[in-house]
Amino acid sequence: MKTKPILLSALGALVFGTAAQAEETITVVSWGGAYTKSQVEAYHKPWIAKTGNKIISEDYNGGLSEVKAQVEAGNVTWDIIDVELSDAVRGCDEGLLEEIDIVDIPAGADGTPAVEDFIDGAIRDCAVANIVWSTIFAYDTSETTGVEGLKDFYDLEKFPGKRGMRKAPKANLEMALIADGVPHDKVYEVLSTPEGIDQAFAKLDTIKDQVVWWEAGAQPPQLLADGEVVMTTAYNGRIFNAAIAEDKPFEVNWDGQILDFDLWVIPKGAPHKDAAMDFLKFSTATEQLAAQASYISYGPARRSSGPLVGLFNDGKTEMAPHMPTAEANLKTALVNDFEFWADNQDELNERFNAWLAN
Amino acid sequence: MSELPPYATTGERIWFYSFRVICGLILFFLIAPIVIVAPLSFNAEPYFSFTNGMLKLDADALSTRWYADILRNGMAAPDAVEGWWSDMWNNSQWVRAMKNSFFIGIFATLISTSLGTLAAVGLSRSEMPYRRVIMAVLISPMIVPLVIIGAGMFFFFSQVGLAYTYPGIILAHAVLGTPFVIITVTATLSGFDQSLVRAAQSMGADPVTTFFKVQMPLILPGVISGALFAFITSFDEVVVMLQMASAEQRTIPRQMFSGIREQISPTILAVATILVIISIALLATVEMLRRRSERLRGMSPS
Amino acid sequence: MAVTASQDMSAGQGTAAGSLTAADGTPLKQRLAQALFRSRMRAFMLVCPLLAFILCVFAIPILIFMSRGFYDNTYERFMPDSAAVLQKWDGGSEPSEEMFAVVAADLVKARSHPDKPVGKVATRVNRELSGTRSLITGTARKAKKMEAPFKDAMIKANKKWADLDTWQALKVAATTLTPAYYAAALDMQYTATGEFKAQDELRQIYVKLFLRTLEISLVVTLATLVLGYPVAYLLSTLPNRISNLLLILVLLPFWTSILVRTTAWIAVLQGQGVLNDLAVFIGFVSDDDRMSLIYNKTGTLIAMTHILLPFMILPLYSVMKTVPPSFVRAAKSLGATNWTAFWRVYFPQTIPGIGAGGLLVFILAIGYYITPALVGGQDGVMISNFIDNHMRSTLNWSLAAALGGVLLIFVLFLYWLYDRIVGIDNMKLG
């Protein structure tokens, strides 16, 4: 049993050149598509040029299952991973991630210490955020005009037609309550009571028959382009990409946007921990975060990067108004409460699935 | 019923022809979806339907761009002239997936065919103890839902450090392929005349010589078609891949799975067309072998 | 192996009169038994490598995975003292000061543990009662500074510690050998007092999913039978030359990747797809009101029927080949109508084929994953999709094991039935 796998992996290495990696080759794992591309341009290439190290870029679909399996089996092959906030917190709680010392994080380009430079909540025990993204809703301006706010997403009389929504309770329940008139600062308070959950589901019920459910981030722009839906919730960067890079007449409505972080984490027992840490520090520096914003419309997690954000790489589109963190867009934003979701996601997922099946 | 008797009544005549039409429709249902991907994959537009131009066979409406896309997807510099081939060979996502599919498929087939053939030879001996139970265990990978197999192997392979590695996936696919080898080889052996073995032995051949000189040539067609079944099983497998493979080990079906889930484009149809051609080739080989085997064993071809 | 049947009384030293002996004098019966044993061993040795391989890489891993469905030591491993105390508690009375003290002490220990297991314990308890995750991680942070009386200190840290619910959830989580996951897989709740009660109606889903899985499998089996029977019959009655050609049409889908076939169905059935275009073209439906044939149960049913149809046709065909046509002719000559001849004479003889094909299709359908995942939408997904969901996104591996266990028991029962009725030896491919 023992020799065969070794022999085979040796063969695999021969054919595909997977072994014989230099010591300073790190594996960076992220979400793929336009998002990974923006990281390759803004982080990977300059880091490789600066240090002479190499990077293997891998895609994954989020979640902790692979990290958990690797750490628990003591067979960690990933060095640094781009994760969602709730996973970063949960992974840290369960001891799957290396702790990151705050003093290791460099100050901003203007000299502001990291603790103050990063947006609140962007630095956690085991994770450092690179971007702020948000769940918004969008529509095709050639078909739909006069949308005012989240209320209209639920108004089937004024805007008849199908709606696209992510097949998960997260963000949908919050947006349903906002559309139902719950003030932003009360959303999670209301959602913590059984009546509040009922209220959110009751609101969802009003459009349930008209919903097309999506699962991958690439689907909503496709649904809009194919005319399968009139409006859809989506990740803001994907709609930006379709609108600016692919010239689609899509518009984002920022009312009730749900803000979230993406963060770098290093799994416990990462094979090239030091190099990964170096990459983490390099990529979350002021210039790098600002540079990424010229490839995709996600907001940098450092305040000091804000003024550096300029034009999109097409050379003409001003990025600032497309950022979830833009002043005007933040007014109606809600920050995702990871603590609430860590506590309630099992129950709400079950209830959501049961609701879907009925 | 193969031919209409001359004394058939009008009702019987109507039934005879309508029955054939029904059967024709069912066979059409079986084949049409497989055939339809081929013309659709030449659509110049990024849609899954026939455009007016295509129906008129307008040259502008047809294009091989999706086939080019198969190669170009993931390449560092798809428009460069210099180093195009090595770029394509090393970086193109679909080419990488194809290399993975063949690498994993071939090694998995070798393992399942060698172990499966030995076992089938043992199982078809009348003296085999606990034959029925053991056979049931050996066939079970074909029966147990793949999600459960994938989950069980995932935990076990994580413990021994094989999850997310080539050897891990090869072993997993070897398990999935063995039932097919056993079924085809035992079927071939069931028509095998055991007196040939005794004849060989009485003339002084040792068991190894007997196996390779007498048994093997006769069951070889069964072994090869079993191997092809095992190969196509691995080549088509995606559920275990989803749970146990990292991005590095992506195979064609795995790549198609995320393609269909995330961003459906005619590139998938182009890949599907190529796969259909591969299946036709495999099927033709198996059919040829089956007939050859029946001829060898003196059975009338059927 | 020369055996002489010796009747020589004097040669048979020590053997009873009249028995047969081999050349070396051992009784023939014994020699035969030895020879038989050796050939049995030889046959077994041939099977042995594969059997060992299957057991190691397949059977045992699945059994280990299944054990997660009723064995979960997350709590007991990291908080052993409070687990023992909670086991002694009756689950209904007011929690004692001792219980508060020991939980607080365990939380302190768990927090200083290098593996940081507090999060794992919190996740475990949270499965029994939503909201206890932050309760436990939050209290663990404060536990070090707590002093007796611990009851007041803990309730001060978080008032949820005063609720009986919290303690009952702890007690259930502290049980290592637990029926809680299997109960959850059947939409029930295992309570601290050792009873089972129905899950909150709004969260009930798994029983419904199992029933839907059965329903889809049954419909697919019936559909393949209805479609497969005529084709198999036609194939068995046509001359060999033609039937072989048509058989290839049946075998080609069998050899084509499932993903290719699923993709093909998406292209055919989707809103802007071939079938809808055709229907609009001939005026069957209007352009604004296209049929939704995919990403729902209809899509799952159509695609699965197509994919599994060859598994029905092939066994039916091989049985029908063996039915002599003279029987039907005899029935007709004795005055039976066409229908009677078919129904009373021909059909009963094809029942073994129906059994073989039907069971095989049903077994394969019940564990189906890929097609429902890709074209199932929301009402076309099956239990396998939920097992995968718990494996890869919610990470509730124990619930995945319990759901898998229920499914596996069902599949194995059908497999046993198949072996009884058809016999595994008779399984054929192409």
Task: Note down, in words, how this protein is organized.
Chain A has 358 residues and is α/β, with parallel strands linked by helices. Chain A has helices at 3-16, 33-51, 65-72, 85-93, 114-117, 150-153, 172-179, 187-191, 194-205, 219-225, 236-245, 273-283, 286-292, 327-330, 338-357, and strands spanning 25-30, 54-59, 80-84, 127-140, 163-166, 211-214, 231-235, 250-265, 299-300, 334-335. Chain A is built from 15 helices and ten strands. In chain A, strands 1, 2, 3, 4, 5, 6, 7, 8, 9 and 10 form a ten-stranded mixed β-sheet that branches. In chain A, β1 (25-30), α2 and β2 form a beta-alpha-beta unit. In chain A, α2 (33-51) packs antiparallel against α13 (286-292), α4 crosses α15 (338-357) and α7 (172-179) packs across α9 (194-205). Chain A is globular. Chain B is an all-alpha fold and 302 residues long. In chain B, 72% of the residues lie in helices and 0% in strands. Chain B is built from 13 helices and no strands. Chain B has helices spanning 10-40, 52-55, 65-72, 84-91, 93-123, 131-139, 146-159, 166-190, 195-202, 207-236, 239-244, 252-262, 266-296. The mean pLDDT of chain B is 86. By secondary structure, chain C is mostly helical. Helices cover 67% and strands 1% of the residues of chain C. Chain C contains 19 helices and two strands. Chain C has a two-stranded antiparallel sheet. In chain C, β1 (188-190) and β2 (196-198) form a beta hairpin. In chain C, α10 (206-237) runs antiparallel to α11 (240-255) and α18 runs antiparallel to α19 (397-421). At the A-B interface, α1, β2 and α3 of A face α5, α7 and α8 of B.
